[in-house]
Structure formats: structure tokens, C-alpha cells
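Obj.: predict assembly geometry.
Materials: sequence records (below).
Method: joint structure prediction, all chains together.
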Amino acid sequence: MRRDVFQAIADPKRRAILTLIALQAMTPNALADHFDSSRQAVSNHLKILTECQLLKQEQSGREIFYQLNPKKMKEVGDWLEPFRNLWEDKFNRLDTVLEKLKKTKNGK
Amino acid sequence: MESNHKTRIVADAGKQELFIIREFNAPRDLVFKAFSDEHILVQWVGPKEMNIRYEKFEPWAGGSYRYVQSLPNGMEFGFRGICHEHTAPVRIIQTFEFEGLPEKGHVVLETTRFEDLPGERTKVTVQSVFQSVADRDGLVQSGMESGVVTSHQRLDALIDKKMIN
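Observations (raw C-alpha cells):
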């Protein structure tokens, strides 16, 4: 099944999971302690995040730890870029307007 | 002269707010004026392929505003809000609502702060507080879409495609 990264982070609980795992690698049980939802629900979120490659699994003895995949997270960071470009466009126009205003002010 | 200032967007995961931060090579009084005069605002607000007109602009506590953006093909989008505070030259607080949303009740509280910087420069910080994380992310995503569809020609191309398929 194809998983979309942006769909994955559209869910607030999954974003909360990412935030926690960003602080330190965690086991599913340790993670579940932070949420009201069932362990099953948390493990389902982990499954989706792993399928999107936002998380990586690491075996340590009998436990599985989840950690962030920084490369994929960088891609998600770029989701703001088009929105930023919109504002950059506006503010570049404002730069030009301000230059004109400065001249009129000095001309007076 | 173009300034080399870069716009920064801060939108932490899972939060209901976002910040838009930018510096300008102009004194604070002037930058504040550019945010306070409808004749100046129309020169820079709104995506570049759109026309913008103010139907109402009352920059004082309790006043309100409404502006309409229109595409060359005649499509129009209305935005409105109430001015809560307009304190020259430091702060503007207002609500912001896109009239085109499928349901009512998704209002943003927008605070714009103007800070003096050395050398006749000004730092502008816009803080937008949304009613939910989903509202915030939805707005960012919509910006994404209109960034992709940069002209109505592209929109037309999409419509053509749909007709072919």
C-alpha cells in the first residue's frame, strides 16, 4: 500500500509520536504510556510512520526501538516551502513599495 | 534596491500557531504605514496573478475590513475580519477569515508586530493563531496548492486534461 508522508503527519497523534521520538528512540510500550489510546492504536500509528519511512526500527536485545529517519524528516520540513514562497513574493513586492515610499518621503 | 532578506516561517508540529518573520530596509513608521493604508496594501498583498480590491478598510479598534481577490477568469475570493487593535507603529491585532471555506467558524487571530532595528530597518513578525492544528495545516497546504497552480493557464490545462481522460 502506498503511503503519503503528508497524510501520515496530518494526524495530530502521529505528529505527537514523532515529537516524542525526536527526543529519544523509544519502544512501543514506552510510547504508549504517553497516550490515552490503546497500545494497538499506537502500534498502528507506528506502522504507518514506519511504512512512510519517517521512522526506523532498531532491534536491541528483545526490544524494538523506534527512531527518526532524519532524511525523510527533511522532506517533511520542506512542506512549508511553497507557503513560504507565497509570503516571499508578497514581501518582495513590499520591498519595492517601501523603496518608492522612501523616495516620496525624501522628496517632500 | 532589492533587499536580501529571507522570509522565515515557523510552524512547529502539532501547534495551532505559525509565525511569519521578515526584515525590511525601511524605518518602522513607513513599514507600519504600508500595512495600514488600503491604497498601499493593494500593491503587495495577495498572490501576484490576482487582482485585489478593498470593499471596507477600517484600521482602528472595533473597525472591520473586507477584501476580494479575483482571478483573470473572474473567480473571486473574499476575506474579512475585525480589527482589535491598530497601535502605530508597533502592533496590529485582527481576525482573519476566508469566506470561501465550506463551513463557517474557522477564524484566525493575527498579531503583527513591528520592531525597530539599527540602521533604519524593521523586523515584522506575524503570529497567526488558528482554532485547531488541522486549520493551521490546512491553510499551509492551500498555500502549497496555489503555489503550484501559479496561473489560470495552468488551471485551464488541468481542466483540459480532465476532459480528455
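Conclusions so far: Residues 81-107 of chain A form the longest helix (27 residues).
To do: check interface contacts against the pulldown list.
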